[in-house]
């Protein structure tokens, strides 16, 4: 049996509830192929000790993941990954990932901060994935005068 260590990082300043952060991070691990069907998620007690969240918070996240069909609880054994979200071209060993890492490095070298990079990536994603599906809103700026 392969042991996969998943460590949830809870950002208390993000405004996103802790259980939702656990759901998002689990989905990210599923998309990247870090977690695969059959892997056991950490126990609620383990997550509580490492991340300083109430065990019920983790259980709430796991119930949400179960509702979505991604994990399944096995009484007395734990919670196990049921299905993956991974695509070969989205794994951390794909050429696309390597290109993205190189681009992020160039952005940092150019003086961009993490928030700048996130804003650029979000803008590019929005442009790519919502093209033609939204109504443009225009604003005018007064130059005073």
Automatic annotation (TrEMBL):
Alphabetical list of Pfam families matching this protein: GntR (PF00392)
UniProt GO molecular function: DNA binding; DNA-binding transcription factor activity
Lineage top rank: taxon: Bacteria
Domain HTH gntR-type, first and last residues per copy: 16-84
InterPro entries named in the record: Tscrpt_reg_HTH_GntR, WH-like_DNA-bd_sf, WH_DNA-bd_sf
PROSITE patterns the UniProt entry points to: HTH_GNTR
Entry keyword set: DNA-binding, Transcription, Transcription regulation
Full protein name: GntR family transcriptional regulator
């Amino acid at each position: 049996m392969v042991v996969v260590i998943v460590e949830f990082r809870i950002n208390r300043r993000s405004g996103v509830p802790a259980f939702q952060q656990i759901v998002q991070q689990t989905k990210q691990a599923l998309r990247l192929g870090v977690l695969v069907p059959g892997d056991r998620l950490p126990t609620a007690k383990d997550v509580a000790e490492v991340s300083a969240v109430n065990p019920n918070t983790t259980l709430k996240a796991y119930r949400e993941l179960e509702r979505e069909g991604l994990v399944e609880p096995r009484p007395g054994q734990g919670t196990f990954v049921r299905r993956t979200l991974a695509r070969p071209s989205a794994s951390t060993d794909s050429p696309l990932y390597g290109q993205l890492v190189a681009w992020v490095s160039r952005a940092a070298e150019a003086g961009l901060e993490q928030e700048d990079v996130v804003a650029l990536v979000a803008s590019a994603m929005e442009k790519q994935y919502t093209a033609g599906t939204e109504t443009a809103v225009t604003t005018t700026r007064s130059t005073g005068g």
